[in-house]
Amino acid sequence: MAATTFAAFCEEQYPRLVGVLRLHVRDDHLAQELAQEAMARACRDWEKVSQVDAPAAWVYRVGFNLANSHYRRRAVYRRIRQRLEADGVDHSDADTAEDRLLVRAALARLRPRARQALILRYYADLAVDEVARLMGCPASTVKTLTRRGLSQLRAQPEFAAAAKGTP
Known about the structure:
Elements (H helix, E strand, L loop, with lengths): L5 H20 L2 H17 L1 H4 L5 H32 L10 H12 L3 H12 L4 H8 L3 H17 L1 H8 L3
Helix pairs in contact: 1-2, 1-4, 2-4, 6-8, 7-8
């Protein structure tokens, strides 16, 4: 490869990476964000990346993985939103900064294992078996922790008020 320094690598590959990701995600701003993150990771691991056979392929793979993760998180968000709407929760302003702070505060009040199970299941979008493996417990425990954690979240005053449609 002609680019031997990270700066030269970026100069050569960044515009190409943005173009490739733009074709993949069909969103210019998202493509730029993903490309920047992929390059940041390449910079962080440059000693390793510069030694692989095709550093450009490595950074493209990271970019595609980041795009897939982005869409997976969006799908999880949609599923959670649909579940909450089925429970009667109004989500007309679903993703405000205030809502995010409310969710963070509510999660912080949960027991650590319930919080971990909820985050891995619904934010990381992992299957029950994967969460069980990561947490070192049976799948039935993950299901119980998830069910109890959701119940505890719904029981918190802020969520109870939102479910009833009051401010």
